[in-house]
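Protein 1 of 2
SEQ + STRUCT:
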Amino acid sequence: MEGVPDEDNLGLWLAFLQGVSVDYFQKGRVLTVQAPTIAEDTTKHIAAYMAGFLRRSAGMIWYKRRAFVPKMVMMQGTDWTFSMKNSVVRRDYENDVAGTEVFLCVVTDTRAESTYQVRKIAAILGRHDLLHDFMIALVGKAPSNLDQGLHFKVAGANSDSDLPAVEVCVLSYERKEFDQFETRARDATCVED
């Protein structure tokens, strides 16, 4: 059959497809497919740490619940559907239902992807009343025109090294700051916004 990978490559294709992330925007009938990145490897550790913290937080509503990180979550609004892998904490393992997300984490490796993910998170915020926090991190190769005033070197690094400069940008917001974030995200055209 044409277009179907042979048995030798089938495992590679299945691994590739498992790592793909898909977002769908009904309004423009736009399907965004992102190839596998390192993001899932990073977000699963951050989300697992947050879930563990919530489970151990005596005196909070989480204490008697079993916060957990599902492998895949499909988040839906009236105009969009987003897939999120190993990056969401839901509040109760016993009651695993949509809308019970309490924490989101997104890691990107390019500025363009960061801007896209910021807009995606802004769309999600209005639909999830239980969401308390989210984090977006950009870890990637620094652009050559990066403002040197914002550039830091690792202590002990060799200044004539052939290693590329790396930039790290982290956004972290709590519920009380969501309105401020949504306003900034709506007008954002680049990472600096």
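Protein 2 of 2
SEQ + STRUCT:
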Amino acid sequence: MSDQTPPTPPTPPTGPTPPTYPAPPSAPPAYPAPPAPAPGGYPPPPTGYQAYPPAYGGGTPEPSKTMAIIALVLSFIPICLTQIAAIIMGFIVLSKAKRNEAAGKGLAIAAIVISFLVIAAGIALVAVGVNEDQKQDKARETGSGDIGLARIKVGDCLPKILTGRVGSTLEITPCSKPHEGEVFTAFKVDLPNDATQDEIRKVVEERCFKDFARYVGSDPMSSELDVTYIAPAKGISFRVDKKAACVVTDGGKKTTGTLKGSKR
């Protein structure tokens, strides 16, 4: 046998070479460490975050709204000093509201407006009252015109009367002119404020019959003249003015001159 080497097998064909990728980084990048907190305080917010600004200028102080509410309540009280206080407080709230430092702007405006309206109404009422007083003063001086029951006095003559009339004003006229009645006594009814109308009427009638003889000169039960009166009304009117007046009349007929001392 001869020495022979076996044949070398053929090399298999090589396929396409796979693509290569870059190696991943050995470690992620490190972030900077936050700064150390100040001694005795809180650490600042982390880097990269922005603190939010305070909303509405740091918040609305509640006392200002309370002041506006108080001003609105005071504006409804019909007293001059409370109206002035309400106006001042309202303007203080409005001043703060312009600087965005207060709530209750609407309440403050309402308080100011109401206060001015109440003051205007008060001035109007005073003007009307002064005018009425001037008219009654003139009527009192001339002896002719409408006057309040509080201004009536003995010797006033009435052009027209109503028997048992309850009222607070009446018309007077000079006794030299034709008239239906003449006041012979005027007084304040001595009864408590809550007296009933019947109680007031009883006291007035008793006083009228008592004073008739002294003024006319004859007994009221046998006199040809009649007695009537003007009495205050019960309630608020009686609390304000308790004045009453007794009137002598010739049966409702027109007379001229005084009946004082006529002994009729």
